[in-house]
Amino acid sequence: MSQVDYAAMTYQALRRYFLAHRDDSAAFEAYLARRRERSRVVITTINDPDFDRKIHASIERQMAEYERSGAS
Amino acid sequence: MPTVAQLGCLYRISYCLTYLLFQPILLVCIDGRTQNLYILAGQNEEIEFEVTPDGEVL
Fold it and tell me: Is A68 on the interface with B (CB under 8 A)?
C-alpha cells in the first residue's frame, strides 16, 4: 500500500481512493493533510441562531460546485 | 472521542443531510492531528464538513 503515490493524485482522486481503500489509513491521512493545506472558512458555530440555514446553504453550495465542475 | 459541541453539530448536520436533502453520509471520524470531527457525505462524495472541538463548522 505504501507504494501508492498520493501526492500525484488530485484532491478528488485521493478522496475517491481512500473511500475505495478503507484499510489504507495512510491514504486517509494524506487526504486530511491535503485538506488542512487548503483555506477553509468558518461556515457557522454551534451557538449561531442561523446554524441550520447556513448548513443547508453550504450543502447546496457544495453540491452545486460539484455539478459545475462537470464531475463524472 | 468527540466533544459535546461536536456531537451537537454532528446531529444537526446529519439531520439536514439525510432528512432534508436525502444525502448519504459516507464517513464520520476524528482527525487525530487537529481533533476536528470530519464528515464526508453526498451521492457523489462531494460534501464535507469539519467541526472543531469548540463547535466551529468549517
Answer: no
* Nearest neighbour of A46 by CB, restricted to B40, B49, B55: B55
Across A1-72, where does the E strand assignment appear? 44-45
Task: Name the residue facing B44 among A47, A56, A71 (closest C-beta).
Answer: A71
Q: How far is B3 from chain A (nearest CA, A)?
A: 12
* B41, amino acid identity: A
Residue by residue, DSSP assigns B1-58 as ---HHHHHHHHHHHHIIIIIS---EEEEEE-TTT--EEEEESTTS-EEEEE-TTSEE-
Higher-confidence residue: B22 or A11?
A: B22
ipTM over 0.90: yes
| Residue B37 one-letter amino acid | L
Euclidean distance between CA atoms B37 and B39, whole angstroms: 7
Angstrom distance (rounded) from CA B9 to CA A46: 6
**Helix-helix angle A25-37:A11-20, to 10 degrees:** 150
Mean pLDDT by 10 residues, chain A (72 residues): 80 91 91 89 96 98 91 57
